[in-house]
Write a structure and sequence with these properties.
The protein is 16% helix and 39% strand. The chain is built from three helices and twelve strands, in the order ββαββαβαβββββββ.
């Protein structure tokens, strides 16, 4: 019998127009960590976090007195989000959803893609989410997408020259096909056509982006 991973939700401080999507993750990931200004997002959603991590250079409100807080130095190597992920993994949370981490500063968004890669390298499972997008990272293995028929999905090699992939349940299926970083980005804008679709990465690493709004 497979052992179920402990799940947590980490909230970042990227701009969020409609924060209602955040609450949909609480049932599966009831343990909530706020990375710095992610506390402002938690307050907008009416969520009381279990832990707050950061140097608090982006927090708009004040810190609550009754929530565990890990204060980080301003001069540090890790981003607040990466620090929050490392603490989550240390505490046994291997399935991690990152919300409020897309958009805003481009450098932070890219750094959060690297955080997603780090989670899998440590044996965990991660996803990033905002109002309209879900992002996954695979270094080998399979991602199954359920009940997303009609949604747009794109696949890109990440931190490597190429990745070799197979798709089922997509408008443009592939079988052990190589996607490259330096030629036409043919992994863009596929469509999920079945109630269950799969993306299998045979070689290399892939970022998988699903647009939750129909285009």
């Amino acid at each position: 019998m497979a052992v179920e991973m402990k799940s947590c939700l980490i909230l970042g401080s990227a701009p969020v127009e409609d924060a209602s999507y955040v609450r949909e993750f609480l049932e599966e990931a009831p343990y909530v960590i706020c990375a710095d200004g992610g506390l402002d997002l938690a307050r907008r959603c009416g969520i009381r976090p279990d832990l707050i991590v950061g140097d608090f250079d982006s927090l708009q409100g004040s810190l609550p007195a009754d929530v565990e807080c890990v204060r980080l130095p301003v001069m540090k190597d890790d981003t607040d989000t990466m620090a929050a992920v490392k603490i989550a993994l240390e505490r046994g949370y291997e399935s991690i959803t990152l919300a409020g981490v897309l958009g805003g500063r481009l450098d932070h968004t890219f750094a959060n893609f690297c955080v997603l890669q780090f989670i899998q390298q440590q044996g965990g499972k991660g996803q990033m989410a905002d109002e309209a997008t879900r992002v996954f990272y695979l270094s080998g293995g399979k991602l199954t997408l359920r009940q997303l028929k009609g949604k747009t999905v794109s696949v890109f090699p990440f931190a490597c020259h190429r990745c070799v992939v197979s798709y089922t349940g997509l408008l443009y299926p592939l079988t052990k096909h190589a996607l490259y970083t330096d030629v036409s980005p043919m992994g863009v804008s596929n469509e999920i056509t079945e109630e269950e679709a799969t993306i299998l990465v045979h070689e290399g690493n892939a970022l998988i982006m699903v647009l939750m709004e129909n285009t």
